[in-house]
Amino acid sequence: MLTRRYDPVRIEAGCDEAGRGALAGPLFAAAVILPGDFPGEGVNDSKQLSAKKRAGLRLLIEREAIAWAVARVDSGEIDRINVLNASILAMQRAVSMLPVRPGHLLVDGNRFSPVDGIDHHCIIKGDGIFLSIAAASILAKTHRDDYMSALHEEFPLYDWARNKGYPTRFHREQLRLHGPSPYHRKSFFLFDPRLEIPFPARVPGEE
Length: 207
Hints:
Blueprint: E1 12-18, E2 27-33, H1 51-64, E3 67-73, H2 75-81, H3 83-97, E4 104-108, E5 119-123, H4 131-154, H5 160-163, H6 169-178
Parallel strand pairs: 1-4, 4-5
Antiparallel strand pairs: 1-2, 2-3
Helix pairs in contact: 1-4, 2-3
């Protein structure tokens, strides 16, 4: 089982995001405050879990958490401020939406900016170390996946129901053939019009 607490005294929220490497759709983030007796068996980094397992754990987390919140930054805003700043902003928004004010934040990754004067610690690969960050990663991932599946109904040709906006070969090929939708991140390298084959995305803000 993952580690329950970093700070044994203050109310602690775990924070994580989902969708940073996608070509389309918003970036989602979650903040979660768990009780000390949260039944955390099976909770892990969302990328290590099946969709079915994530769905079941989402119900558990949302039912048992002291508080949780999910926020997003849309593709246009990602283009304006870059994806790194968007990930920080989304987590800040999620923290600000919590109905219970935490005294300390555990943030997945190595970059964050303070929110409302709350102390924080950045933990690289924290979603595989701390229970509250893993819980946040599950909520961010499942809420974003649901959102992208809904967008698929509007733009089915990109196959977002399966790829969730990430750069699969099929998604790249459809971009080459049909161009981007209003939900694509225009600041990313979506495709190279000089070539017949797609190539990997540049993630702005991470050069």
